[in-house]
Design brief:
Blueprint lengths: L5 E9 L5 E10 L4 E6 L5 H9 L7 E8 L11 H8 L3 E4 L13 H11 L6 H10 L5 H4 L9 H12 L6 E5 L7 H13 L4 E4 L3 H7 L2 E6 L2 E7 H6 L4 H9 L15 E14 L2 E14 L3 E5 L6 H9 L6 E6 L2 E2 L8 E4 L3 H4 L6 H6 L10 H14 L16 H14 L4 E5 L7 H18 L2 E5 L3 H4 L5 E6 L2 E3 L10 H4 L3
Parallel strand pairs: 3-7, 3-8, 5-6, 6-7, 12-17, 12-18, 15-16, 16-17
Antiparallel strand pairs: 1-2, 1-4, 8-9, 10-11, 10-13, 13-14, 18-19
Helix pairs in contact: 3-6, 14-15
Length: 499
Amino acid sequence: MTPPAVQVEDLCVTYPNGHRGAIGVTFAVDEGESVALVGESGCGKTTTLRSIQGLLGARTRITGTIRIADVDVDVLTLRPRERHLLTARRLGYVSQDPYGAYDPLRTVGHHVREPLLIQGRRPDAADLTAQLTAVGIPEAATRLGQHPHQWSGGMLQRATIVAGTQLSPLVTLADEPTSALDADLADNVLSTLRARSRAVLFVTHDLALAAAHADRILVMHEGRIVEEGTAATVLRQPRHDQTRLLLAASIRAPRLVRTPPRTPTVASASGVTKRYRSGTGTLTAVQPADLSIHAGEIVGVVGPSGSGKSTLLRMVSGMEPPDSGTLTWNGQASAGPTPGSVMPISQDPLSSLDPRWPLWRSITEPLTVTRRLGKAERIRLAREALTQVGIGHLDPLARPRQLSVGQAQRVAIARALIARPALIVADEPTASLDVRTAQAMMALLRDLADRHGVAQFIVSHDVALLGTIADRLLTMTDGHLDAAADPRAHADAPRQEPS
């Protein structure tokens, strides 16, 4: 019999702080198979993938065995250099954090070419352009010369998939590879990922994607695999309570569309545009756009990756000036909002937290703009904020590197909530969260609008989820903002209710 492409037996992972990220994890992925690893945020999915790839720190204790098909050795017994030489061509890896996977001083093209260069192969520019075009990157030949900050998170994630599969690996390990992509592009990218790999093990919080692209599903809960089976069996006849909870949370009821409230305008834009240099020409990211956001109102913007949503959000938040048009906050045109009145929730939560600071310092930093607080008081307030977003068990003294991306996103939300701002701007705030946690976070944002009158401007690729809390949904396509029709009426319902 042909051995599995990758086989994991009794994997146990204990972090330096004593947290057990994986407990007795056992499974195999056969060549030609696609396996999805699902579960709530922080349940051990990313830990499992990083254990296979050898990306956990030296102080982390790992026991068990990990074997790759054509290598008769437990890779956990190898020294780091030996392991890297053995796995470099056999294992592909697509990170959950596309920005963190890139050197900000190098171009995107350098990153995509690097796997070939390491193997002594000369990249073909036309071939690389074709690969990026195939995963939906417009003007790929020009964009290869740009730096990561010039790309949207969704576009960068697709380039990471191309880079991670350059060598046609035996197994590609993909950690939330489509979290920042719209539904159609997510399907396309996972199809491409499977076509470019001999086997795939991917982490996802999207059960509909798992149903469409996985042969088998593994459900994790509190570091253990609690259910395993074919995609059809797990989703239609779940045996474990955790699986049932995840399925129940994936069914979303849309919020009724309502007219803007008769409350003060917190932020508005009139005819704002934004252009970027692209090679020898310019790329218009946002065409003339008009927008108003009222106190207590949630305005959502949906649209394809790279359509200009994030750029518009950065202008509304005051982080980036428009090339033309006018922005006002609280009825006053100015160079930017007053400090603390607008709080962001980033698409890239790990990068938004200072890696040198304990969590309490990052969470309570917005309060220090107007108040003097002692360390003990800041730690107490941080604990309360962490509890409010459902992660009260986390130690406020912990560092961001000890968190999963989903946990880091909730810390970022806690930091935004603690300032009680007039406006929250959130770029894909649930992209890294499982369906239950994502719904809880959205409910928290809705409650903040209803009870405290905090206005919110939220960008997302998930029409169905955003539609459960938004008062208005706007669509953005190729830089054009269209408020003529509410996209909830055309949401892809089967994708949100896996069967």
